[in-house]
Amino acid sequence: MIILKWTACLLAMLVLSGCSTTITTNLTPSKHVRNANGLYLFEVALDSNQQTLRKETIKPYVVIGFDKYPMVPAPVLKNRWETLVGPIPADRTHVNYRYKFDYEYNRFPQRGSSSKLSPPYQLEIIDKQ
User: Which residues contact 44 (CB under 8 A, 6 or more apart)?
Assistant: First the structure.
């Protein structure tokens, strides 16, 4: 009987906790014409239904290799960030990157911190034809 009560309690906790989803959307084009200054704009959107997420604490980055480039909120748009990355050397034709989001969330008895890493993406830099 005790096992049945514990099972029912655990099942109720799972149902009440629900599922939270966090989706990153890469807004950077997959191809970009090479420019003279070697700077390229990276943009991302983050959508989450996690109720405990403290949105004001989100700190997004573009991660290229071991380098992290901090992003700033896009003007006028919600949940979107952008940054210029570079200079990217003229001999590179591809840049592999990810987005990383550091954030805090509410939990008892104190705030927690976590991060989310996007899937890998690739920017192809093409010469003007």
Answer: 24, 25, 26, 27, 28, 60, 62, 71, 80, 81, 82, 99, 118
Q: Please indicate, yes or no, if residue 6 is contained in any of the structural domains.
A: no
Sequence-ordered strand ranges (E) for the chain:
22-26, 31-33, 40-48, 53-64, 67-70, 72-73, 80-85, 94-105, 112-117, 121-126
Q: Which helix (H) or strand (E) holds 6?
A: helix 2-17
Instruction: Give the CATH number for residue 56.
Output: 2.60.40.10
- pTM here is 0.80
Q: Which domain does 75 fall in, by range? A: 20-126
Residue 5 forms part of a structural domain: no
- Which of the 8 DSSP states describes residue 15? H
Q: Does 83 map to a domain?
A: yes
Q: What is the pLDDT along the chain (129 residues), one digit of tens a residue?
A: 677 666 665 555 544 455 678 889 999 999 999 988 999 999 999 988 888 888 899 999 999 999 999 999 999 888 899 999 989 988 899 999 999 999 999 988 888 999 999 999 999 999 876
